[in-house]
């Protein structure tokens, strides 16, 4: 799963540490989210979207690898 967390964070002028504090996670978790090494839990994904005041679909995007197999729904 891809995300726009880094771009959204920098647009707000927040450091990784500041975003981590607002979300109640570690700075390392924010770094892992931004680099795609960690997919958030559903509650954390909703907290992120709520914090940026956007729908969750504006933060997270499916990778080509996440697409259903051809013929699937």
Automatic annotation (TrEMBL):
MF GO annotations: DNA binding
CDD domains per the UniProt record, alphabetical:
HTH_XRE
Q: Which InterPro entries match?
A: Cro/C1-type_HTH, Lambda_DNA-bd_dom_sf
Domain named HTH cro/C1-type is located at: 5-59
Q: Which domain of life is it from?
A: Bacteria
| Record's keyword terms, sorted | DNA-binding
Q: Which residues form the signal peptide?
A: none
Query: What's the protein name?
Result: Helix-turn-helix transcriptional regulator
Task: Give the originating organism.
Answer: Leucobacter ruminantium
